[in-house]
Design brief:
141 residues; alpha+beta; four-stranded mixed sheet; 4 strands; 45% helix; DUF1642 domain-containing protein
Length: 141
């Protein structure tokens, strides 16, 4: 199986980026315009590409449908499955260097809406690994 990094980089090509950006504008309340989101997605893709290749099979990445409790809107989210204990964990606050080296539990879907949801969830703390690490550091105090 592929790592989360390999799977996402294979799907997030130059033709998919505008579709993902359009989904993010439509689905989420964001301060970024569609052009800015396209640029952020390119930065995100470059940041993922720079993550070291050290596959880690301690956790598998599941892509699961979630339901937002207040609005009842469905969206897709990456969830981490501990292979040993079968416990599930959110991918929030897991540094890019770690999460993108976990192995995919199954093939990553190709739909722009699914990829957009996954990227929205995983980039909540920043579009690049440097931004994400800074926000994690600030959050943890």
């Amino acid at each position: 199986m592929k790592t989360f990094k390999e799977a996402l980089l294979n799907k997030l090509d130059d033709t998919m980026i505008p579709n993902v950006a359009a989904h993010l504008v439509e689905m989420y309340e964001t301060e970024l315009e569609e052009d800015s989101l396209r640029n952020a997605l390119v930065s995100f893709k470059n940041s993922i590409a720079s993550v070291s290749d050290q596959p880690n099979d301690d956790f598998k990445v599941l892509i699961e449908k979630e339901i937002e409790p207040i609005t009842k809107i469905e969206y897709w989210s990456p969830t981490l499955l501990n292979v040993e204990t079968e416990e599930k964990f959110a991918a929030d606050l897991v540094p890019f260097e770690t999460v993108f080296n976990y192995i995919m539990a199954e093939d990553l879907p190709s739909e722009a809406s699914v990829l957009g949801d996954i990227i929205w969830e995983i980039t909540f703390d920043g579009w690049t690994k440097e931004e994400q690490l800074e926000r994690i550091k600030n959050y943890r105090g």
